[in-house]
Amino acid sequence: MSTRTVEIVVSGLFVILALVIMYDNWRIGARWASDGPEAGYFPFYIGLIMLVASSGTLLINLFAKSADRSNFVERSQFKQVLQVLIPTAGFVFLIWLIGIYFAAAIFITFFMWWLGKYPIYRILPIAILVPLALFLMFEVYFLVPLPKGPIETALGF
């Protein structure tokens, strides 16, 4: 797929997203009321900025005389993206299944072992201490509950 094709598709999707944002925020109120801006005022204008920027990108790519027809991504580059994307999608699934803290420990362990090629004695302290630090910071200090799974529930959290 060429770079031009990808830019046309992505900018077209952003045009649609911007129109949806503008419509929805106009619906809930994007005007200036007697007591100040309504709820959709600022998001509406963010959508308008998105619309202008993505429309410009779309038009430039549609009507450019010397369009960039080079490959958007080479196989090796795409493989590198998938090496991060697939495990990250698995991490998101694990958050739903077992909670964020144990999923983070598994995610860190996997990446350090697979991509970093670190020895286990370096992996384990980081894979344990980082989620523990996040737990203390969010759950104890900030009192912000993050998704927990059956293990945290069994431990009383």
Structure explained in plain terms:
The chain is mainly α. The chain is built from six helices and two strands, in the order αββααααα. Strands 1-2 form a two-stranded antiparallel sheet.
* Rg from alpha-carbon coordinates: 23 Å
Number of helices: 6
Low-pLDDT parts are none
User: What percent strand?
Assistant: under 5%
What is the share of helical residues?
A: over 70%
**Overall SS class:** mainly alpha
What's the structural blueprint in terms of helices and strands?
Blueprint (H helix, E strand, L loop, with lengths): L2 H26 L3 E2 L2 E2 L3 H23 L11 H24 L1 H15 L5 H22 L8 H5 L3
Antiparallel strand pairs: 1-2
Helix pairs in contact: 1-2, 3-4, 4-5
In short:
The protein has six helices and two strands. It is mainly α.
